[in-house]
């Protein structure tokens, strides 16, 4: 895109143009200087047209606008040059006009280009202009009628010219008036400050109108002294050049940035008929008292016909708009209001208070799937009819889509809205008869209400917020098994906070905000540290370090356990390698969530991670809960077998809290059973808990597995677990979970004897 001309350049060009125009005027007034003045003016007009063409070519904004003005100006300039070369004089007298009247008449077509340029300017501000060319034609016909009635014959008598020459002489200032009025109207509609181009175009066309009217006066007063006529002609030429300069100045203005184009509505749509009809009728009335020329009467009748056509087109467009608006706010299937219609009605109730019910049909999908969509459509129409029959006065029923309906109760409070919901629920539980079929439905209905600003409880989010509240209440009703639920702000706030947390978790995983903390696992007999468990934490940017209880359930509910497990596993494996290099080859345990275990690509992913890090898979222990194993036993067994084939170990986590099926213990060659803390906490004082621990230890040992007890809080519990045959322990008695950077220091203080085995490949 080329840079706009600098202000300094524009000022220099304007000054040069002004000086050249003044010089041409001086030359024209000097004896024998007419030829030189004509040459200077011709050069100036060529410069004006060239500047407009350059602006049109330079684009992109306003290309059509300035191309149109360049064409209009060029046509008028060519006509003037043709007259000059034919007559040898810059002053057009009646005789020259009479000889070349047809040429001048044809050149009036240039005003169509001026009109097109202004229409293009208006399109920058308005989305649609209704029939702008018909409006222009109406103006031309009225002007032609007025000129025929009032000016044409007097001008012929005054100048002695023929009809074509007189029409050409009158036509130019008349068309000037038309385009100037359009320009001034455009400034009024848009605002001259909003678009400087419009203001300068209006100024240019107004000056041109003044110049051409003056020239017509000069032409009609041909008997005036020759000197006065000549001076008047010079003034006209200077004024016309000033109009051209103003057009060039307009073309140099930047196009305004219009964020949203407006619709042209109201009186401006009928502005042309409102202006043309009175003038046409007035001419016809005058003809009843004083006979007007036939051409004037015919043109007046044509103008009336054009006005009639314009009015018909406007009303046809209005009917189309009304019809499209009705279709836009109506549900095609049921004839009820649709979502847009509901929102429009909601907007009109703002500040007045309203109750809103959102109805979602239960078991409708079964009808669609079993009997087909045509039966489903019949059922929706039957539901709409039944609900409509029970509508309170002033209520609006809408179908929002699918099997979801909404009922708006203007002026209703929460109590009335709840009673209406109960009545609708009762109506919907009654069976529907569809072509010999009996269909039973239910519904989940969410209820909310706003008392409006007058009641001191204006709804913060307006109409859309009211719909959202009803939707929230409806989902509460659906989760609790159907029926009616009233919007509860506390429940909604918790849901929104949970949703915000979910999105933050999704972003946090991608941003690497999940970190692993590590809790040591010790051998009971020797006190040696044999491994650590990686426990996920979330380093939230605002809330600080969050424990898994805050976000783990949310991750499992929304399917984020896969990327979460991946992030922790990669961190844990990388840390295990660093510990080995520091002389601490520890076993690393990582929890697998349900979604991860059911992922057929899990084993391949684990293999890639340990291979890329250089860790022996035997140093990796993957913990799986009983509940996860039993959700899909067959698939779980296949995945565990694939993990064992990779070389990783498997631990059964939270043993004793799930199904505790001996069958999966028989079929899964796990390396470890991990006893839940609910048994560990009571083992020192409860013999039944102690018996369970002892029995579990014997079972694990007989199956070739070790038993690890978590949740060890004190030395008494640790001593009792050792007596009962537990192999390894984990808990606050030994250490709390800690960042990787602190673990090596803790090992130096509390576990000075590392395992001798090597855990790295190669």
Q: Class by helix and strand content?
A: alpha/beta
Beginning-to-end CA distance, first to last residue: 63 Å
- Weakly predicted, low-confidence segments: 1-6, 453-461, 752-762
Q: Given the C-alpha coordinates, what overall shape results?
A: elongated
Structural account:
With 762 residues, the protein is α/β, with parallel strands linked by helices. Helices cover 61% and strands 13% of the residues.
Brief synopsis:
With 762 residues, the chain is an alpha/beta fold. Helices cover 61% and strands 13% of the residues.
List keywords for this structure.
single chain; 762 residues; alpha/beta; 8-stranded mixed barrel; 5-stranded mixed sheet; 29 helices; 17 strands; 61% helix; disordered N terminus; disordered C terminus
SSE blueprint:
Elements: H1 7-29, H2 34-58, H3 63-87, H4 94-99, H5 101-107, H6 110-123, H7 132-159, H8 163-190, H9 196-220, H10 226-251, H11 271-289, H12 294-328, H13 339-348, E1 354-362, H14 364-371, H15 373-389, E2 396-401, E3 404-410, H16 414-429, E4 432-434, E5 437-439, E6 442-450, H17 462-479, E7 483-486, H18 489-510, E8 514-523, E9 529-540, E10 544-546, H19 548-557, H20 561-581, E11 587-591, H21 594-597, H22 602-613, E12 620-625, H23 626-631, H24 633-646, E13 649-655, H25 662-667, E14 672-675, H26 677-680, H27 687-702, E15 706-710, H28 715-723, E16 728-730, E17 738-739, H29 740-750
Parallel strand pairs: 6-7, 9-11, 11-12, 12-13, 13-14, 14-15, 15-16
Antiparallel strand pairs: 1-3, 1-6, 2-3, 4-5, 8-9, 8-16, 8-17, 9-10
Helix pairs in contact: 1-2, 1-10, 2-3, 2-10, 3-6, 5-8, 6-8, 7-8, 7-11, 7-12, 8-9, 9-10, 11-12, 14-15, 20-22, 22-24
